[in-house]
Amino acid sequence: MMTGMVSQNAFVSRFGAVLFLLGKLIRFAFFLFFLLVITSRTQAIQGYTPWQVILFYITFNLIDSVAQFFLREVYRFRNYVVSGDFDYFLTKPIPVLLRLLFGGSDVLDIPIIALSVGFIFVALSNIGPITTPDILVYFLLLINGFVIAMSFHILVLAIGILTTEVDNTLWLFRDLTQMGRFPIDIYQNPLRSVITFIIPVGVMVTFPPSQ
Amino acid sequence: MKKYYLIARNTWDEVLTYRTSFIMWRVRSVIQVLTIYFLWSVVVPPGKTLLGYSQSLITTYILGTLLLESIVLSSRSYIVGNEINSGNLMNFLIRPINYFLYWFSKDIGDKAMNICFSIVELTLIFLILRPPLFLQTDPFYISFFILSVILAVFIYFFINFLLGLIGFWSPEIWAPRFIFITILGFFAGSLFPLDILPKTIYEIIRFLPFTYLLYFPIKIYLGQLSFFEILSGLSISAFWVFAIYFMMKAIWQKGLKSYTAYGK
Known about the structure:
The structure holds two protein chains of two kinds.
Chain A: H1 2-6, H2 14-42, H3 50-71, H4 77-83, H5 85-90, H6 96-102, H7 110-127, H8 132-163, H9 167-178, H10 191-198, H11 201-210
Helix pairs in contact in A: 2-3, 3-7, 3-8, 3-11, 8-11
Chain B: H1 2-17, H2 19-43, E1 49-50, E2 53-54, H3 55-73, H4 80-86, H5 89-93, H6 99-129, H7 139-164, H8 174-187, H9 199-205, H10 215-221, H11 227-258
Antiparallel strand pairs in B: 1-2
């Protein structure tokens, strides 16, 4: 309910909302086009077929967009702490963690989420023979990815309380997750181990389509 | 000129004041470049070539963007729109200072800091990953490379400033910039060399200013362009410098006529 109510904020400036949405769609389309160009030139990346590479990218996009949609408020947390608004939240009869996680959803991510879901089904149908248990495991690992993303946002809030440092930590996390746009097999060790076991980008984004 | 030198030096100090932010920004830049570097390392394995790019050329291209982004794309003038919206612009209009040169000086200070860091980062990447690199030694290509980078710096500064001028008419200055950054990320060539695109698309985008920010200078450095191609590229680049400059001046004058600020 909280997410639905705050979604209206995105349309306070319709001009801005249209431009931001357009920007997100352009980014999505351009990167997809980039992958298509590379895979059409090389036929495969590290043994992955074009549709498999696309599935990796779309899975990253879905998890990233859902995290953005629900957890956008975390980006404003520093401002709340510095300005003192955080104290105001503490006095409200609502769990403050829920308020900080879900109190500022970005509704402009919905079209990207819808596009990603559509592309996932297209990619899955083009990849080849996939069994029902494979699909079930894929969706279970997607949920696992969302939970990891949420856990990281909670960690950022905790760091934010202690240091008021939020923005850089969040953007660093987003850049690391962007490594999951490609199969993590392309990265050399020890980087591959770091993004698998320490900052589980691989588990979060790359494992679902790998199944 | 001394005051502009001091502005550039102060920007250096400003950056050092918020060290954590700046270091994190640099860490992020390195992560972004490494992601693309690893991708291209598997796309073009040792001993293979893809559309004229050997592994040493493509890794030089990708790592070269890290240095070029520091020189061309690092900037402070993205704040111009905020200054107009908040009314701070008035503080500059009443001072004996050229507003364009003020922001250009700030950009230079910011670039200097970013260049220093990117050189250290590239050294570390080289020591750790030992990537195969192409070293250009021909003074012909090096001098044209430097000239193309200088033009790129001006193109980016003028476009950046131009986007800030939207603030004269709208408080919505970040949304157009978001689209600009998205398009820039693709058409400037930081993800891939633009000439791997289908020929028809490449023939269109080679007339856009974005092509001359990263892709064109690195192509000159790699020695992959003929004298005629370099000359033609520099002409298009120079055209954009002047075209965007005059557009910016005209819009600035128009914006000042409609500008009002209260309470400062």
